[in-house]
Amino acid sequence: MAENNSLLEGQNTVTAIGDEVVYVDNIQEVVKVTSMSPLKMEWNAIVHCRRGRILLEVGGNQEVKVHQEQLLLIPAQKLLQTMMVSTDIDAVAVLISDRVLKSVLGPQVDIWNRAMYLREIYVIDTLRWSKALQSQSLALFKGEELFLFQEFAFSFLRTFLLIICEELLRKEKMILDTFTDGEVSSTNRNKVLFSQFLELLRKEKQKRRPVSYYAARLCITSKYLSTLCRKVSGKTPTRWITDSVMEDSYQLLRSTNLTVKEISNRLGFPNSSFFGQYFREQAGLTPIEYRTQKQTKP
């Protein structure tokens, strides 16, 4: 049976299946909690904006606009801050754990990963059958109690997520991606290894490590990891590591009062000077300049 979730105490807007799937039928209450400072969501979030507008910053430096009748897609562990929500907002959200996402989508989870992490597609237009899905979700999550609620819910989620994957394939013609030349082709095994590499990056608290560290965790050589990353994503593992370290840097600079030296130590840099140089090379400004800029931004 569905459980009431304590995220929004006193609000009748949340339905949950354990701590793995959460359905929110009024995101205004969630925004009050999440707009205070940047955060990394533990869940994959899918938001249907039925009316109004939303402006977010994703990854610490990318603005994303969501308009009426669009879907917002945010992968788990992505740095997120709500910048603006219009007063007439009407939107619902489904939050899904990584475990459930993989279980429900199966091999098609690769489509989600490519769209989220390679193409950074965070917004798609309303699905052609969104009204039908909306009525089904309301009947499921807000209708009468069902003895087989969890079975119905996961069946609905699979249909919903497969439709989103279909739209993602159409949006950027990702189905035509062909990284097949060279010594390593994008076989299913390579895609699985690449997904595992991204998962390691998301879960590591101190991400600034050599490529050999991640290769060893995957039981492959550094050369093999470098080759398959380039073939599957067009980016080296070093670039992926750097991007992930920078996202953590953005979060710590914006949402904590830690000094630059303390942030440097937490991220695994030998000293704050090295961190400052590293940050400036990537962001084009110093850590202090970034923190000041974001704090004074209206």
Description:
This protein is an alpha+beta fold. The protein has helices at residues 27-34, 98-105, 109-118, 130-142, 149-172, 188-203, 211-217, 222-233, 237-255, 260-267, 272-283, 287-296, and strands spanning 3-4, 14-17, 21-24, 39-40, 44-51, 54-58, 62-66, 70-74, 79-85, 90-96, 123-125. The protein has a seven-stranded antiparallel beta sheet, sandwiched between helices. Strand 6 (54-58) and strand 7 form a beta hairpin. Helix 4 (130-142) runs antiparallel to helix 5 (149-172) and helix 9 (237-255) crosses helix 12 (287-296). The radius of gyration is 20 Å and the shape is globular. 29% of the residues are buried.
Provide a compact summary of the structure.
With 298 residues, this protein is α+β, with helices and mostly antiparallel strands. It has twelve helices and eleven strands.
Question: Fraction of residues in helices?
Answer: 40-55%
The overall pLDDT average reads 81
Number of strands: 11
Instruction: Please write the string of helix (H) and strand (E) elements.
Output: EEEHEEEEEEEHHEHHHHHHHHH
User: Within the largest sheet, what's the order of strands?
Assistant: 1-2-3-10-5-8-11
Described by the principal axes of the CA atoms, the overall outline is globular
Number of helices: 12
State the separation between the terminal residues, measured CA to CA.
44 Å
Q: Give Rg in angstroms.
A: 20 Å
The main β sheet shows up as: 7 strands, antiparallel
Protein structure class: alpha+beta
Strand content: 15-25%
Unreliable stretches: 1-12, 175-185
